[in-house]
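Below is how a single chain appears once it has passed through the pipeline. First comes the sequence as given, then the structure the pipeline wrote out for it. We keep one example in the README because the format questions we get most often are answered faster by looking than by reading.
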Amino acid sequence: MSTAQPVVEHPSASTQPPVVGVAGPKVFGILSLVLGAASIVAGYTFVVPVAAVVLGILGLKREPASRTFSIWGIVLGGVTLALPVLAVVFGVALLAPLGIFALLQGF
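Resulting structure:
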């Protein structure tokens, strides 16, 4: 018979298991994404896309966990803001030659 005692290890109080799956708040990122998606429908208001871009920038700076949501909110809001501007630029570029020809014809 052996007189050796079994070794029992007790976890020390200073070491805690790592916490898995806990992310920071994602409020700004989620709001940015939702407003970016809503700005596709309400794009002519200019308020919703601007809010999506602003909240996306705040989300990038304050909430690293919501980086993807924030980026998509910025992209959707930015595209929605850029579409009317591009439509006016291309409309003027396409219609300006017609106006010049009309002036030359004496209309």
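The two ends are 118 Å apart (CA to CA).

See the next section for the split statistics.
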